[in-house]
Amino acid sequence: MSDTWAAGREPDVRAVRRAHEVFTSGGELRRPPVRELVAASWRRSARARVSPDGAACVELGDGDLAAYREGHPLAAAMPVIRELMGAYATDGEHLLAVCDAAGRMLWVEGHPTTLRRADGMNFVAGARWSESAAGTNAPGTAIAVDRPVQVFAAEHFRRRVQAWTCAAAPVHDPHTGRLLGAVDITGGDGLAHPHSLAFVQAVARAAESQLALRAPAVRADRLRLTALGRDEALLRTGGRTLRLSRRHSEILVVLAHRPEGVTGDELLAQLYEDESVTPVTLRAELSRLRGLLGPEALRSRPYRLSTEVDADFAAVDRRLASGAVAAALGGYPGPLLPGSRAPGVVRLRERLADRLRAALADRADPGLLADWAYSAWGEDDVEMWRALAAAVPAAQRPPVLARLHALDAELSAGATGLQRPGPHTRR
Questions:
Q1: Which of 402, 412, 366 is nearest to 387 (CA)?
Q2: Angle at 230 between CA 322 and CA 293, to 5 degrees
Q3: Where is the OmpR/PhoB-type domain (predicted)?
Q4: How far apart are CA 305 and CA 309, in angstroms?
Q5: Which of 142, 223, 234, 315 is the least buried, fewest Cβ under 10 Å from its Cβ?
Q6: Which of 119-133, 173-187, 202-216 is the most confident on average?
Q7: Could you tell me if 170 and 30 lie in one domain?
Q8: CA 319 to CA 309: how far, in whole Å?
């Protein structure tokens, strides 16, 4: 069976359920009948130690949920999502759901009877349905693979969800491309049709179009730099979006951080580990960057940018300074230029990560700590997993402790000659 849905066909439920039992009891995966998309998701769910018999955890109560989703970018798209999906969900006894990029449900709406049934598996606003927390499911898996996904019945990793079918598509910021979350349609077997997937994809595109219309225009005399979670930064300037080389990304990060400018010697020390690199090499890089940006954009003596820069890492820093920890984490899609070894970038990266980790630990909010711990950059962060274990309610602690014990075992096994992995150190 292919990874796309063929019209009029759906998985053999009994065969998939048997394959699920075999996999969850002994780890053996049978293909067919399991689609590769689903098989890969089951493997990730097992590595995350998701229990097939567990339930999703509700992380945000009514008060926290209302404040969080009011400030979320997807709130601006909800009118068009409701217009396109609301009547369809109610008439078909389905649910429409919208989650954030961490898989946390922000809105779950639809037919009253179906809503009551969904309560039994905690498919409710405020609950986390990321794949790493709740196993294979359409919104969580759509976020994990960043593509539209349909999950049918027994393809769900958790047994109590196997009576449901769902289709979801990711939604991105139309200006930066950052993943914002996903829209989902959930219900019974009637959704096991290619039209359901096409429908939710169309809703996601409409939501992005709505966000593009409502987003404030970028001033022509400002640069917008996106450098978090990527090795090659994006620069938006004059209506263009440029993908920069790694070295040009490092130069712009340093200059954005130092708007007053830096001398040639300072910039050389910020960019190169090798002290034998000559100023000629740096001037050549700056010349190429000036050719890309325009002759007036980059000035010298000292080296500086001629226009203001809206940098994503600076925005996270400002939010932390104001105490807006949730907003800071929401704007942090990953470490600053994670592959860079430029000394100035490394210092900025570690400083920002350390400040954010300290704020999360001090806040001791289980949901925010879980956002970090279950992220790609936080999955090996022992200290944050310990903070999460101390913060979560006892009923939610077993999978966290299991992950923490596994990390401790890895550290013990490789302790000789190795440093403890930091928040961005990957094995």
A1: 366
A2: 90
A3: 239-305
A4: 8
A5: 315
A6: 119-133
A7: yes
A8: 17
Amino acid of residue 19: A
Q: The whole model's pTM is what? A: 0.59
Rounded Cα distance between 422 and 381, Å, is: 6
Q: Is the pLDDT of residue 1 over 60?
A: no
**What CATH number does residue 230 fall under?**
1.10.10.10
- Separation of alpha carbons 340 and 137, rounded Å: 35
What per-residue confidence (pLDDT) applies to 418? 46
Query: 27 by DSSP, 3-state: which?
Result: coil
Separation between Cα atoms, residue 367 and residue 379, nearest integer Å: 15
- Total structural domains in the chain? 3
Residues 285, 206 share a domain:
no
Q: Tell me whether the omega of the peptide bond preceding residue 295 falls within 30 degrees of 0, making it cis.
A: no
Task: Report the mean per-residue pLDDT for the chain.
Answer: 86
Residue 341 is assigned to a structural domain of this protein: no
- Could you count the other beta carbons within 10 Å of the beta carbon of residue 207? 27
Last residue of a domain, one of 189, 214, 239: 214
Determine the Cα–Cα distance for residues 261 and 257; give it in Å rounded to an integer: 9
Q: Give the separation between CA 58 and CA 129, rounded to whole angstroms.
A: 9
Contacts of 135 (CB under 8 A, 6+ apart): 41, 42, 45, 50, 52, 156, 157, 158, 161
How many other β-carbons are positioned within 10 Å of the β-carbon of residue 378? 21
Instruction: Kindly tell me if the per-residue pLDDT of 340 is higher than 90.
Output: yes
- The answer for residues whose C-beta is within 8 angstroms of residue 361's C-beta and 6 or more apart is 369, 383, 384, 387
| pLDDT of 227 above 90 | yes
User: Is residue 164 included in any domain, yes or no?
Assistant: yes
- The rounded distance, in Å, linking the Cα atoms of 196 and 168 is 9
Q: Are residues 217 and 208 in contact, defined by beta-carbon separation less than 8 angstroms?
A: no
pLDDT of residue 218: 46
